[in-house]
Write a structure and sequence with these properties.
alpha+beta, four-stranded antiparallel sheet, 224 residues, two-stranded antiparallel sheet, Alpha-Beta Plaits, single chain, 6 strands
């Protein structure tokens, strides 16, 4: 390789390394859950479901079905949530605080572990009105907002749900949320870009701009 071309190679080499690092981080490379894994995770969840404030006892059958239909692909969790009106007393300090602040006692450590496993909060929204359209569902209830959380795999979701570190934190979630609803979904079509699409595009633009600046700089130097 010509020394003259070394800067371009450095730029595109950095782009490639960053893309590889992001790809490794953002996906679960273990594939779909195996029957053995599912049985082990279910045994752990059933023990945890019997514990106070586990937060999963009502959904354990749905979780098992979700695991057994695993396709190994990422998904997003749609979350609807409603905060109670007024302040909530912190269960340890007794200090009154808004529910949106109290729920962070649960959300912040959970999200820290999820990000370490390749997931991230994709979207957070506040509600600005009631049901505009509804069909064969219960009457309109007050929702405070909605959030989309991206998980790299069903394995990561279930392992975090069964993490004993969060057993004592579910109390904060239960106190801070008057009601909540969550279900998993996979993307079929959309004009918005998640990180898995935005990062490669950003890296490509970064590489092209860097390459262009080098060419312009070299042309300017050669002309003098």
């Amino acid at each position: 390789m010509s020394w003259r071309r070394l800067p371009e190679a450095t730029i595109w080499g950095a782009v490639l390394l960053l893309w590889l690092a992001f790809s490794i981080w953002s996906r679960d490379w273990g594939g779909a859950l195996t029957p053995t894994e599912i049985d082990e995770l279910m045994a752990h969840l059933q023990v945890q479901a019997s514990a106070e404030n586990s937060g999963i006892e009502a959904s354990i059958d749905v979780i098992e079905e979700f695991m057994r239909s695993d396709d190994g692909e990422p998904f997003v969790m749609w979350n609807l949530f409603a905060f109670p009106e007024g302040d909530i007393n912190h269960p340890k300090t007794g200090e009154p605080m808004p529910a949106a602040e109290l729920v962070q006692e649960y959300f912040a450590p959970f999200m820290g572990k999820l990000i370490a496993r390749g997931g991230y909060p994709a979207l957070s929204m506040r509600a600005v009105g009631g049901y505009i359209d509804h069909w064969n569902v219960p009457a309109d209830v007050r929702w405070s907002g909605a959030a989309l959380i991206r998980y790299p795999s069903r394995r990561v979701l279930v392992e975090l749900a069964g993490d004993p570190e969060f057993e004592h934190l579910h109390l904060y979630k239960q106190l801070a949320l008057e009601r909540t609803l969550a279900f998993p979904a996979q993307r079929q079509f959309g004009l918005y870009m998640g990180l898995e699409h935005a990062v490669p595009v950003f890296l490509l633009i970064f590489g092209l701009l860097g390459h262009l600046l080098l060419l312009l700089r070299r042309r300017s130097r050669d002309a003098t």
